[in-house]
Every structure is written in structure tokens, then in C-alpha cells.
Amino acid sequence: MDTGTQDVSDQLVRLNVALQDVVRWGRETFPRSTLVTKAEHLRREVAEFDAQPLGDPEEMADVLMIMSHLHADLADIRMRVFKAADEQGVDLVQAVRAKLAICRARTWNEPDEQGVVEHVRV
Hints:
Elements: H1 3-29, H2 35-51, H3 57-67, H4 75-88, H5 92-105
Helix pairs in contact: 1-5, 2-3, 3-4, 3-5
């Protein structure tokens, strides 16, 4: 395996570990979420992602974190996030870990009428 391939492989392993932390946190923090509420939350995050300049690590992490709770049917969105991160030089592992720390420190509202739980905006 060449060095570039090994670097990508190592990053994917690290990202998988980080996303496992996200999944555990999400299950503990949002026990009532469903596939429908996760899909709606992802729709909202993708809209925020689209509205931001390319390379915003926090928005990339938001989308990736929510996708980690959904099925593999979202591979095309995941590939888009990976490609944008690579093009902008964003370390997705660091971005996900930083975003998870932010999320853990936030206060969360009750689910809205569509079942999505948003953080309290300050």
C-alpha cells in the first residue's frame, strides 16, 4: 500500500472511531429520535452546509455527525462531505471531535413539531 493510500486509510479508521463516539452520545442524548426525525435534521443541516462557504469544518462535522445515525443510503452526501473536506484541507476527525465537544456542552430543546431536537440558540 502506498503512503497516500495508507494516510487515507488511517484517517478513515480514526474518523470511524470518532463517529462511534458521536453515535453513542446521540443515542444517550436523543433517545426518542427516529429515522424520520434524523432525516429531517439532516435536511436542515445540509441546507446550512449549502449556505456556508466551502470548507466550514463545523458545518461539515454537523452533516457527518447526523449522517452517522442514518443508514448507508446517504453515501452520496457522505462522499460530498469527504471531497469538500479534502479539497479544503479540513481534518474531519478533528472537526468531528471539536463539534462533538460543542454539542456535549450545549443545552437542548424538546423536539419540535417534526420531532427534531435543536440546541438552545444563545
